[in-house]
Amino acid sequence: MDAQAEAAYDGNALAGPLSEVFAVEVTTAVGRCRGCGTSSQLARLRVYGLEPGLVGRCPGCEEVLVRIARTPNDLWLDLSGMSALRIQMSELR
Amino acid sequence: MARAAVSGGLRVRRTWRPAVLVERRPETTSAATLVLDVPGWPGHLAGQHVDVRLTAPDGYQAARSYSLAAPADGERIEITVQAVPDGEVSSFLVGDAASGDSMEVRGPVGGWFVWKPENSGPVLLVAGGSGVVPLMAMIRSRDATGPGTDRAPFRLIYSVRGPADRIYDHELQRRVGEDSDLDVTLIYTRTAPAGAPRPTGRISIDDLVSYGWAAELEPTCYVCGPTGFVETVANLLIFLGHDPSKIKTERFGPSGP
Hints:
The complex is a heterodimer of chains A (93) and B (257). With 93 residues, chain A is mostly beta strands. Helices cover 5% and strands 34% of the residues of chain A. Chain A contains 1 helix and 8 strands. In chain A, a hairpin with a 6-residue loop joins strand 5 and strand 6. Chain B contains 6 helices and 11 strands. Residues 1-7 of chain B have low confidence and may be disordered. The A-B interface holds A 6-13, 15-16, 19-25, 27-28, 41-44, 91-93 and B 3, 6-7, 10-15, 49, 51, 63, 65, 106-107, 109-113, 227-228, 249-254.
């Protein structure tokens, strides 16, 4: 999909697929874009999908931060667009 | 399980669990509330959602994410689904699903677009169409904190095309009548009922000024609806001086979730 097209979803749509592999709710975590350095909660990403997979782009520069694809046996997770992911442990009581 | 009840189960890894439809209740001609019985449901926070997966007899599966519409009642949860054109899952759920049908759910999921009853500050809710669903969950869980407690004042601005598209209409009217700390304003974009105080039209900065909270009161703002609606409202709120970190948004596809 064209990066200029309006994103149909946001990072809230990543919560379900990521909940299968992360032991914590990860859409509240803050990812730093490797391209422009913007820090954003994953819930705020612009998300394209649903098929063939989910692509989450930086709200600052549209760089791809997250790609998730699910096959019958595997979940592919590409976080290479992020230079760091900060998970607030104090939230996890 | 006390810990899960407090946290909304934010720590637990999710897997698909079996669910059974107990009731399907029409809300409008194209939206319905589904009550599901989910053994082992860990509880949730207002604003969280749940993924629903249907399996056809030939094994074909389709999953979609829906906002939880109400606080959990034990192992019973409610979602409200808006049928979208050509939506294979939403059309089935709204029009064809029957009590006793089996499906699978995964959740609760999401932790950002949530409201917790211990937050006592003012809240502005802005809904476009079926974006009202997670906001209704917030209104309902605020109510569950019980009268006599220091409840957060809520204002809901709810944009719909016309009167026939209002979801939860009677319940909202009842709640406003009973609760001086809840205000609800309807924005009609195409057809307004007779006597409506506001002419039809899309939500504007005047609406947010007249029916929302002043930025100085530092309300938490929750905005949910189609992408264009959410971006417009979030930008207007920032222009009005609201702290961007207190504006929480959730958008669903161009035509619906």
